Amino acid sequence: MITLKIASATDVPRIREIAFKTWPNTYGEILSQEQLNYMLDKFYEPALLEESIRNGHIFTMAYEDDFCLGYAGYQHNYQDKNATRLNKLYLLPEAQGKGMGKILIDTVVAAAKEKGADVVTLNVNRFNKAASFYKKMGFEIVAEAYIELDHGYLMEDFIMEKKVD
């Protein structure tokens, strides 16, 4: 049975653990090992995750029999707009393809609707296989973004949106 739980700062080690287990599988063919390590260290620094939770970012953790299989991280009122932003959605490899991603997307969309958002928005690496998953979930590509990081690294993303009904 799948249960969902809103994370607190005490869940940061588990969030990091899942990220460090899923990123090599997700991005291993897209990014160099150096860029992968850099981005994990930058985006999953414990103090940064704890601060984001304190600042209202929500991590919904998905559990099966007390074992966390993944999470969705999101925030409401993104850029002071009537939008909810899905910042992160990662599932352990063994949990992928079993409907857990859909459960998490549905949870984020329901939370967005409850907050009165018009859309759920996200960025996804244009070469990430997850882009097709998001399309199946009703997201549409609305723009492309090229985001420069330190050390000459570049994020090449699709910006996708799903209307909240």
From TrEMBL:
The keyword Transferase applies. PROSITE patterns: GNAT. The keyword Transferase applies. GO terms for molecular function: acyltransferase activity, transferring groups other than amino-acyl groups. Keywords: Acyltransferase, Transferase. Residues 2-165 form the N-acetyltransferase domain. This is GNAT family N-acetyltransferase. It comes from Flavobacterium frigoritolerans.
